[in-house]
Amino acid sequence: MRDLSQRALDTAVQRGATYADVRVVRRAEESISVKSGRIEAVAFGESEGFGVRVLVDGAWGFAASSGLTMTEADRVAGDAVRIARASATTLRRPVVLDDRPPAHGSYRTPYEVDPFAVPVEEKVADLMAAEAAMTRTPGIAFAEANYSAQREWKSFAASDGSETDQEITHVVANIEANAVSGDELQRRSYADSGQAAGYEWVRGLDLAGNAERIAPEAVALLSAPQCPPGRRTIILDPSQLYLQVHESCGHPTELDRVFGTEASYAGTSFLTTDKLESGFRYGSDLVTIVADATAPGGMGTFGWDDEGVAAQRVPLVQDGIFSGYLSSRETAPRIGRRSGGTMRADGWDRIPLIRMTNVNLLPREGLSLDDIVADTDDGLYLASNRSWSIDDRRLNFQFATEVAYEVKGGKLGRLFKNPTYTGITYEFWRSCDAVADARSYVMIGTPNCGKGEPGQVGHVGHGTSGARFRDVQVGVGRW
Fold it and tell me: Treating both helix axes as pointing N-terminal to C-terminal, what angle do 120-135 and 207-223 enclose, rounded to 10 degrees?
C-alpha cells in the first residue's frame, strides 16, 4: 500500500498538483437481523480501494478506484489532476490550507472481544433470545433485534510527508417491541446505538434482560392517555437528548454548512460567523458542548481525520457562549483558526467532508438525573426518539419520543403516549436549568448520519447525561 500511495503522490505532483493525499481503505461489514421468531438476514461484505485528492491552481480534484495496481495509481492521480484543473476555471475562491504538521503514526480501536471472531451462531442466538423475550409479552404483535459490525483498515499519505495507518472497529445493536390495537401502533426500543468497541459491548447491553422491560411498556402505551399539550417543564433522558444535541448543536456547527457548501442538499446554518465574533449566547450557563475525537468508545473517535489532522477536543459552546465550529484545513483559515480535525469520508470512493466527531454535552457536578426528577414539581420525562424534523438552517425543530412520564412532586407518575415537543434552537438551549452529573453520562453512537451529495453515511457519537428545560411547547399527535 505504501508503494501504491507513493506512486499516486509522485504522479500527481509531476502533473502539477501543489498538494496531494491518498487514502487506501479496506472495509469489512457484517449485519444480522431477527424478526418474528426467524432470521431475516445475515450479510457480510468487503470493499477495498483508494482515493486521490489533489490541489491544482487552488481547486480540488478527486478520483478513486478499486484496482490496487501501479497502473491504476497513475491513471487515478492523473484523473484527479485533470478534474482539479477543470474546476479551477470556474473557481470563486482559491483553496488555502492551514499549516498542520505532517502526520505520522498508527491507531487502533481498543476492544476485548473481536466481533468478527465471534461465531455467527452465537450472535444469532443472542438476538433470538432478545426477540423471544419481547414476544412472550401478551399484546406484542411483532419484535425485532438487529446487530451490525464494521471495521476499516485505512492508510493515509500526503505529499507533505504524512503517513498514518488506522484500524477502526464499530459495533451496533438494537431491539424493538411493537404493540398493535386496531389502527394504532406503539413501540418501545432499547439501545439503537453503537460504540467503538468489540462484542463485549453488545454483551454488556443485556438485550434479553431489557427486552423483558420494554415489551410491557409498548403494550401499556396502547391504553395510555395522550400526552397533554401546553408549555411544560421537560426532562430529556440521554436516549432522547443525544439526538437533540446531534440535530440542533452538531449539524449547525459544521463550518461547510455556514459557508453554503451543503445548501443544495442538507441545508445551511443559522450560526453565521458574526455570531462567533460577537459571543452569541447559544444556551444557559450550564451548557458546555465539545467535539471530542479522543473520547473513549465514541463512534467519532480516531487517531487522525481523513486529511491527516490529529484527533482533538474542540470547544463548540462554553458555559452557554458559542465558541467554535467543526472545521477542516480549508475552512478553518477563513475564520483565522486551524482545523479541528473533522474531515471524514464514507469509504475510499468518497471525498472527505466535515463530519461530527463526538459532540458531547458535558455533565455538571451537583445533581444526578434522579435528583433532577426529584427537584421537579410538575413536568414530563421524555425518553427514546420516535421521529424528528428540523428546518434547513437547524433553527426550528420538532421531536416526538416513544414515551413520556408525568412528573409530579418529584416523582415519576402516569405514562403518556405520542409526546412531541417543539422549539427554536437557541431559545430551547437557553431554557436549560439543570444538567445531570457524570453518574448518568453515556456515550451513544449514531451510525446513520447523512450528509453530502452523492450521499455519505457517517458514524458519530454523543455523550450526554440528561437535562431539564423550562417552558417548552409540548404537543400531541399520532405517528
Answer: 30
Whose CA is closest to 344, among 463, 248, 462, 256?
256
To which residue does cell 485533470 refer?
A: 82
How does pLDDT run across 266-293, given as a tens digit for each residue?
899 999 999 999 999 999 999 999 999 9
Cα–Cα distances in angstroms (integers) from residue 186 to residues 23, 164, 478, in the given order: 45, 48, 10
- Residue 370 DSSP class: H
Amino acid at 209: G
Q: Which fold has domain 2-223?
A: PmbA/TldD fold (3.30.2290)
Handedness of CA 127, 130, 134, 135 (dihedral sign): positive
From the list 405, 398, 468, the residue with the least C-alpha distance to 431 is: 468
Count CA atoms closer than 13 A to 198's CA, side-chain side.
13
Residue 373, all three cell numbers: 426528577
Q: Which of 22, 23, 162, 55 is nearest to 100 (CA)?
A: 162
Tell me the one-letter amino acid at 307: E
C-alpha cell at 145: 433485534
Question: Which string of b and e fits 424-460 if b means at least 16 CB within 10 Å?
Answer: ebbebbbbbbbbbbeebbebbbbbebebbeeebebbb
- Mean pLDDT, consecutive 10-residue segments, the chain of 479 residues? 96 98 98 96 98 98 98 98 97 95 98 98 98 97 98 98 98 98 96 95 97 97 97 98 98 97 90 96 98 98 98 98 98 97 98 98 98 98 97 96 98 97 98 98 96 94 98 73
Please state the length of the chain.
479
Residue 479: per-residue pLDDT:
35
DSSP collapsed to 3 states, 202-241 = HHHCCHHHHHHHHHHHHHHHHHCCECCCEEEEEEECHHHH
Distance of CA 318 to the CA centre of its chain: 21
The angle that helices 2-14 and 70-88 make with each other, rounded to 10 degrees, is: 40
Give the N- to C-terminal CA distance of the chain in Å, as an integer. Answer: 50
pLDDT tens, residue by residue, 44-72: 999 999 999 999 999 999 999 999 999 99
Report the predicted TM-score, pTM, of the whole model to 2 decimal places: 0.96
CA distance 330 to 307: 10
Q: How many CA atoms lie within 13 A of 273 on its CB side?
A: 14
Q: What is the pLDDT of residue 192?
A: 82
**CA–CA distance, 372 with 137 (Å, rounded to integer):** 32
Residue ranges covered by each domain of the chain: 2-223, 230-476
